[in-house]
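User: You have something folded?
Assistant:
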Amino acid sequence: QVKLVESGGGSVQAGGSLRLSCVASGITSSINRMGWYRRAPGKQRELVANISSDGTANYTDSVKGRFTISRDSAKNTVWLQMNSLKSEDTAVYYCNVRWGPYYSTWGQGTQVTVSS
């Protein structure tokens, strides 16, 4: 059974930092892309950042220069370092892993709350 376990969410004041972690287990094929999405209250889910197996990272414009995504393929783990957090970063953050020929698995989500 494929499972993603997220951790690292919480509450922080604006300007602070948080680091999200996501560990994948039960995956029997190669992992292609790992990423983080978020859903803010009243908004649709959006891509925050993703990273491919060769280390190429992509970020949504609003987090460029503040967030850094990284991965350890040997440990099936992806991190999202979030610095200079703003109130508009408040959302539930979801880990997503794309693996095998076409599979996609989601984590349960972790709340990030930034107070101004």
Q: What stands out?
A: The CA atoms of residues 32 and 53 lie 5 Å apart.
